[in-house]
Specification:
homotrimer; 464 residues; mainly alpha; Ammonium transporter fold; 16 helices; 2 strands; 64% helix; globular
């Protein structure tokens, strides 16, 4: 039952049409904001800003670049672990992230940054938010890794970014919940979106490609590049759009500590769960990051350093046990095939993060935060000037449900679309195989190199 | 027809002599500038600078480190794609970059930073410029990858940096053209310099090492590390020496967008050009970067966000088609063997960047830039206070021709020098092979590990 | 003589107990400092601080992230060079660094940051210092790589961090020596600590695992990732906690130059020492970094640009010769088995760094530094307001001896503890083998993929 995986028309068509659409929409809607426009000097004079350093660029650019590395190298290399799907892991991640950030600038712009003149004015914060937005889709890709075509991924991203922008608007603007590192908005939404899609696209005969559904020694080392860049830069992720000054500073400390605790717990659970106490790379590559996910909502709050350690401690225990017990259960019983185990790394820690955020917010007090500090941290201003910390906790919890709902409903809809037999997805026996969508160089036994001189995959030289 | 590739005398001699020369010249000429000297505190008082943050270090250091990563990991790993030349790719890149930055500090210093006391005063901007300068030579290395000896590369770099400094002086100082990301100064010059050298060093029997002139699965994944770090940090490259404030901010936005568009176009053209729509890693690793190259000159201009998307869109189409059609044509007809396809990634997008810069500059207006903004962006001050945008466009175009001319003429001269039979370059049959210049560990079949216990390449243990 | 390497109880126990201890101690002792607390806004008003940018976060965060990358990717990937110990190299590095930074925050906090209320107040500088502290233990790990169990490494780290904090307190506070990049405090101490441990744990029959004590082609390329990130970010390492303004700026320049010179010298000595002038990856991966180590103490001093080049030049000569002659000698004669050659990369360059620091400090003068500059650079204030540069040189030298003494004595003690037969270390024949502590995926010949469909190491799927 061979499937047609020829995407020679569909992939270029989608890429071209969508890129041209982006150009037109950017032409109509997107302009520089006052900090990235040459009129910044006039703006400075008007606002009496004493130095160029007060340009938001200098507050946020280092964090932006760290986030950028997480999106492209972090997520990309984390998905190279499969023995013959490294090209697809890092390559399709690259494709959909590059498309997604453009569409995100528009979608988020329409919801958050529309100026009086009907234009979206962009600066460095928009770039960070676009990277954040696309992270949700990359998480969803993790559940589908190896089982979908790049065309399907482009569709998944188009709708994913759209849903994200709406969901984010409801949670951050309407509910006025805080979520600087996106435990709810990014991780919970993205994970349930991807898991539901994977459930709709369930492949009963996936065991036909079982021999490819694992790693080899070197591919596990490649994946560690992804893990480590995610782990190291996660403090930047959770602080990138936090408040200037103490907000960014505290978010970094909290995330750094949660992640440190995650590593020890993951090693502990991984070792105790195997017969001879041997460690499993799957756990080390993934569950060590759970603390970063779970600290996303509360990163800016006064959760205290030991509170952060506890969050990392608990979330990684749950995450590692998820890899050991839940993933096989979900596959067998719930018919959800989750290639990267995003349920363990993003869904559960994301929900934990939302709950931690709600509790921490509800218990915030002026004695701990200071009067001004409380107002600044939760932005109890203007429309929500009278909101108390207690009530804020309730809205935080509401935000979590919105994120889950958008993930489930959105995933079901998009999964339905992706089930159409027009997207060039691989047959069950060809999953997890780069041969389907990539020109893969023929590997040869090293010792045979000299006796097989007929290979040629030189740069820019098409096969004869 | 075995060639003598023994570099046991020549390489150490060149390294020692040149390093000692650097020490002496630095001793005579190079000092800290007022921002990196302990007298900064006096300077601050004199100039009434209120805070340490106004030290240029804090404006530019994050961008510098990103550029640094591009030079050493970006260029280095991009050149690891060959199946048996990864050591040479990343290792010789390391060697010539480390030498080049020292020589660049001197050459650029003499031309741009000479103080009244005859000393070159250096700070963080000099470090960035030295990294930029060396990028031209690393591009040139891309054309020669696998076919030259490290001694030849040192010579290529010595002359390359020298030519760069002169060319840069003419373009930036005499013509007063703008080129913050170096589309002309770095990419166009570097590419034509390397291509001309490769043309002079043409090897008619290179097909003898054809079996090594390709990638294997893992080497393609290694190369993606290079690609992604170049891609992610390119906004820093194009903004690192841009104007404080809006200049750096805008350069980042423009480059980010051009690169995002490049990815989609590259995937589209790569897929449409293969029989079954399969993607080619060569394209993904290279042409996705064309937008960054093409945005180098105009990065600081008010090219608008959609203008940036168009630049990325067009340059990657041309770049990918270059890999498909031009590289084979150049090799067969023009006798130019371009290992990494730098003509497609640097020459053509660099020229596009120069043209885009000239057009954008010529069409700049006070209504878009604001009166002060126009003056600040183009530095219409002092000697060029009366220059109009139109005329600036002409000078920008002139700069492009200077860059091409320096590349062609300089490459011909240096190519002639490198053709001398004294540099220890490999025979045609030994190209693209690390065995020639490196102690390569003997790979063994994994299953044989236990039965062959006689291997020893331990750290610091010379072969018996 | 099979050893029991089952760590199913001991490793989880150690991880859990220590992580819970951390949580309790953090609960009792650790709080946010005034720059990371929500009361920062009140602090700003009290201290009349005009802008959020004066929060130390903005001075140090970019450098912190670079240091963080060095610790986890730099050290981690540098240790992936062994053909079958890449998991252990990067994985155990991850484990002990994540534990060490928590313990370091406490230990360094008690010695340096204890507030009047008995709490340790932390901010970004503490995070940097914790990363620094753990670097000493990672260096020590380098000597023991492949020969110890993760439980031993946790013990090594617990005591290593403790010793570090005491030694650092004596050198920096009591002796008032300067050591911003830690030539003495980090590298000298860490190296002698590790070498002494390795000496105590001497394995006479280690040749039984000789076949694994080398690299393969790809593992050497992985190790270059570590080398390059260490090399590129070393300027951040040596400047991260330097003085605001010119201090950080100068430390970057000095380190950049020392490292550049190191590369050329390493290539020269490596080539000259081999029969056909072939380069050895061991040297390139390691000795190119010696300049960074040797510039650690004097990085902030007015050592002049050419002085920095000389430091890099000399330290890499010694380091490379160390790999060629000293390591084999130490193994045969002194019974010190130094897997990564840390004696060559950290011990000798660290001592050089200490000596360079002492000499440079002793020869500092008001004519070069300026009156204020001299006071600022050496902190000749309060208790040491009357100290002269000459005397400072003596104290610097004293600091070097303290570092060596702590390394030797501490290493002997901890080595004795680690010799107990309870830690699950591998037998001599099983050293350098990931199989002992990791679930290693079965590699299969690529050509056999389709005929062996019985493999399964999918994410989260426990072996049947």
């Amino acid at each position: 039952m061979a499937k047609n995986t020829n995407i020679r028309i569909s992939l270029p068509a989608v890429c071209f049409v969508w890129q041209i659409a982006m150009i037109i929409l950017f032409g109509v809607f997107v302009r520089y904001n006052e900090e990235s426009d040459t009129r910044w000097i006039e703006h400075r004079r008007r606002k009496n800003i004493s130095t160029n350093l007060e340009n938001d660029f200098y507050y946020r650019y280092p964090s932006f670049q760290d986030v950028h590395v997480m999106i492209f190298v972090g997520f990309g290399f984390l998905m190279t672990f499969l023995k013959r799907y490294s090209f697809g892991g890092v390559g399709f991640n690259f494709l959909i992230a590059a498309f997604g950030i453009q569409w995100a600038l528009l979608m988020q712009g329409w919801f958050h940054y529309l100026d009086d003149d009907g234009k979206i004015k962009i600066g460095v914060e928009n770039l960070i938010n676009a990277d954040f937005c696309v992270a949700g889709c990359l998480i969803a890709y993790g559940a589908c890794l190896g089982k979908v075509s790049p065309v399907q991924l482009m569709v998944l991203t188009l709708f994913g970014v759209t849903l994200f922008a709406v969901e984010e608007y409801i949670i951050l603007e309407l509910l006025h919940a805080k979520d600087p590192g996106g435990s709810m908005v990014i991780h919970t939404f993205g994970a349930y979106y991807g898991l539901t899609i994977s459930w709709v696209l369930y492949r009963p005969m996936l065991s036909q490609s079982k021999h490819l559904q694992g790693s080899v020694y070197h591919s596990d080392v490649f994946a560690m590049i992804g893990t480590l860049f995610l782990w190291m830069y996660w403090p930047s992720f959770n602080s990138a759009i936090a408040d200037h000054g103490d907000g960014q500073h505290r978010a970094v400390i909290n995330t750094y500590l949660a992640l440190a605790a995650s590593v020890l717990t993951t090693f502990a659970i991984s070792s105790i769960s195997q017969k001879h106490g041997k460690l499993d790379m799957v756990h080390i590559q993934n569950a060590t990051l759970a603390g970063g996910v779970a600290m996303g909502t509360a990163s800016e709050f006064m959760i205290t350093p030991y509170g952060s350690l506890i969050v990392g401690f608990c979330s990684s225990i749950i995450s590692t046990f998820g890899y050991i017990f839940l993933t096989p259960f979900m596959e067998k019983t719930l018919k959800i095939q989750d290639t990267c185990g995003i349920h363990n790394l993003h869904a559960m820690p994301g929900v934990i993060g939302g709950i931690v955020g709600a509790i921490t917010a509800a218990s915030a007090s002026e004695s701990v935060y200071g009067q001004e500090g409380l107002i600044n941290t939760f932005d109890f201003k203007e429309a929500v000037a009278n909101r108390t910390a207690n009530i804020q906790g309730g809205y935080q919890a509401a935000g979590l449900f919105v994120a889950i709902a958008f993930g489930l409903v959105g995933g079901a809809l998009v999964g339905g679309i992706l089930k159409l037999p027009i997207w060039g997805d691989p047959a069950d026996a060809n999953c997890f195989d780069d041969e389907v969508y990539w020109e893969v160089p023929e590997d040869e036994d090293e010792n045979m190199l000299s006796s097989h001189p007929n290979m040629n995959h030189a740069r820019g030289m098409p096969d004869a």
